UniProtKB/TrEMBL annotation, chain A:
UniProt keywords, alphabetically: Oxidoreductase
Name of the molecule in the record: Aerobic-type carbon monoxide dehydrogenase small subunit (CoxS/CutS family)
Annotated GO MF terms: iron-sulfur cluster binding; oxidoreductase activity
Keyword flag Acetylation: no
Signal as UniProt keyword: no
UniProt cross-references to Gene3D superfamilies, sorted A to Z: 2Fe-2S iron-sulphur cluster binding domain, sarcosine oxidase, alpha subunit, N-terminal domain (3.10.20.440)
TrEMBL record, chain B:
Record's keyword annotation contains Oxidoreductase: yes
Annotated ranges, domain FAD/NAD(P)-binding: 5-265
Name of the molecule in the record: FAD/NAD(P)-binding domain-containing protein
Signal peptide region: none
UniProt superkingdom: Bacteria
MF terms in GO: oxidoreductase activity
Keyword entries, A-Z: Oxidoreductase
PANTHER family with a match to the protein in the record: ANAEROBIC GLYCEROL-3-PHOSPHATE DEHYDROGENASE SUBUNIT B
Pfam families xrefs: Pyr_redox_2
Keyword Oxidoreductase: yes
Length: 85, 441
């Protein structure tokens, strides 16, 4: 491993330069991105920022995993975890 | 405050072509794009070192020309910026994802080219993790240079399914099957009509030959009737035209029932400034060739509108693509003409963002006086969630029409309305923006 990782709910997820958070999580076999506030399963769906099914917390801010580039050291978590609120 | 003569929203083929045309006419152009790369849905760029996705030579050539021309114009692109709408003062409102701030942009003209979205019909279980759109699977494959892993089922309708099956196979993981609601072989005459569109035909055969050569099952006149969680992964129930049911265990499922304009919330601002023109698949979903032609049309329209002349109408190039897409829709028309409702259990989720089901809609539609689309939104929370109705409004409207045949059939926009912001944005960011604007005044 070349040392490019971000944190996903406590696990280190490797990624390649330029990859989105969604691509890196999928590459790590993570398809279920937690359950959102109404109990729907968060997931990668449309890939273009339209469906909002892939919302995650990126350093506390709610972002689409399919639009947001992975950066080393980012803290990424399920939306349900409201530790930053 | 940012200023631009022409602000182009979206760096897909429509936006890029519009930007090139406007820039060549001497206008100062700024492009706003939510991603860190240009190219849009069809030309999603691969990360460094990843192999390029298999595409016909004509498609690759179009992209090379577009990039070359765009680079030659030296146009500023504001990446990581999400366009939210045009406010009452005629300012374009853009959320800068880098700073977390919302920035107003004063432009003389705005060309909106935010593309298409895929249609996905509701089926029990469509809302589960592990289910994506087929285009969603495809663009991640383009980005990463890797086929989705495990046992993949592609289902729905249209030529995109064949393209993605071939692209996956080339990257080493063919789908277990392609499930197609239509059956193009039943329409040989319509198929023959494609001879008038050699580029389109060549593209179709380019992908079909791979699907044939590799023996990927293309199950026509068949639908995915439901999806459940299985022991390991997902189980899809397939129904074919003879009524036979079959179950397939897979890891991931791609669904795609066509595309439609991503025109949600796009409203024309009051007043005459700025000039606003929509372009490409968000105006009419006709594919990449049309999107490029329409981008050029939009730029010419802006130039004319700025001179108080009228907008350029549909061009011959667009009409041609419209005819071609019409042929494809006929070829891929679903074989079963059963109402949508007949296959849906009451607990089938219709609106995933608000977790609203077919049963919830039935209860609303069972009232004595039929509810309007707007009332179904406000009383039932359909089309009210984070996707702003993009993936449920059309389906909900269709089911409302089936449930209340005594009432006028509602449309998707009856449910969603047309109001910016076109994407959810933290209230705090918007408040900051209006403070910034007042400081400028
Ligand atoms: C997932 C998907 C995959 C597709 N794959 C193919 C394919 O392989 N082959 C094919 O022929 N057609 C494909 N299409 C059809 C596609 O619509 C093309 O016809 C073509 O990309 C349309 O060009 P466009 O410029 O109109 O829109 P797009 O190419 O979709 O470009 C729109 C651009 O706007 C940006 N954008 C959207 N909303 C905002 C916003 N609010 N703020 C800022 N930027 C924004 C997007 O990030 C994107 O870059 C696909 C469509 C989808 C949805
Ligand atoms: S997958 Fe649809 S917004 Fe990210």
């Amino acid at each position: 491993m070349t040392g490019r990782f971000f944190d996903w709910n406590g696990s280190a997820i490797p990624f390649r330069e330029g990859e989105t958070i969604a691509a890196a999580l999928t590459g790590a076999g993570i398809l279920h991105l937690g359950d959102d506030s109404v109990g729907s399963e968060a997931r990668y769906f449309c890939g273009i920022g339209a469906c909002q099914n892939c919302l995650v917390r990126v350093n506390g801010a709610i972002r689409e995993a399919c639009l947001t580039r992975a950066v080393a050291g980012l803290s990424v978590a399920c939306v349900e975890r409201r530790d930053h609120d | 405050m940012i200023e631009a003569q022409v602000l182009v929203i979206g760096a897909g083929p429509a936006g890029l072509a519009a930007a090139i045309e406007a820039s060549r006419a001497g206008l100062a152009v700024t492009v706003v794009e939510q991603r860190e790369t240009i190219g849009g849905a069809i030309y999603r760029q691969a990360v460094l070192g990843a192999p390029a996705t298999y595409q016909p030579p004509a498609v690759r050539a179009r992209w090379r020309r577009l990039v070359h021309d765009f680079a030659g114009c030296g146009i500023t692109v504001r990446h990581g910026s999400v366009f939210l709408g045009i406010d009452g003062d005629g300012l374009a409102i853009v959320e800068n994802r880098g700073t977390g701030h919302v920035e107003p942009v004063a432009a003389k003209a705005v060309i909106i080219a935010v593309g298409a979205i895929e249609k996905v019909l509701p089926r029990p279980g469509w809302n589960k993790a592990g289910v994506s759109t087929v285009g969603g699977l495809q663009i991640m494959m383009k980005e990463t240079g890797r086929a989705p892993e495990g046992r993949i089922l592609l289902a729905g309708s249209g030529p995109l399914l064949i393209a993605v099956a071939a692209q996956m196979a080339r990257l080493g993981n063919a789908p277990v099957a392609v499930v197609e609601a239509g059956d193009p072989f039943r329409h040989p005459l319509t198929g023959g009509g494609l001879l008038a569109y050699p580029t389109l035909l060549a593209e179709a055969l380019f992908y079909l030959k791979d699907v044939w050569l590799r023996g990927i099952p293309w199950l026509r006149a068949t639908t995915v009737a439901g999806i459940e969680a299985g022991a390991d992964g997902l189980v899809a129930t397939l129904h074919d035209y003879t009524g036979t049911e079959r179950r397939v265990a897979v890891d991931r499922i791609g669904l795609h029932d066509g595309i439609r304009p991503n025109d949600f919330g796009l409203s024309t601002p009051p007043g005459t400034s700025p000039v606003v023109v929509t372009a490409g698949d968000c105006r009419e979903a006709l594919g990449a060739v049309a999107a490029e032609a329409d981008g050029r049309r939009a730029a010419l329209s802006v130039i004319r509108l700025l001179q108080q002349r009228e907008e350029v109408g549909t061009t011959a190039a667009l009409r041609r693509e419209r005819n071609a897409q019409g042929l494809l829709s006929e070829l891929f028309a679903p074989v079963s003409a059963r109402p949508l409702l007949s296959g849906l259990t009451d607990d089938t989720v219709l609106c995933r963002c608000e977790n609203r089901t077919v049963g919830d809609l039935k209860a609303l539609c069972g009232k004595e006086d039929p509810l309007s689309g707007r009332e179904v939104k406000h009383n039932g929370r359909f089309a009210m969630g984070a996707c702003q109705g993009r993936f449920c409004a059309e389906n909900t409207a269709r089911l409302m029409a089936e449930l209340r045949q005594d009432a006028p059939a509602p449309s998707a926009v009856d449910l969603t309305g047309r109001r910016w912001p076109i994407r959810p944005v933290p209230i705090g960011a918007l408040v900051c923006a209006s403070d910034d604007t007042s400081k400028q005044e």
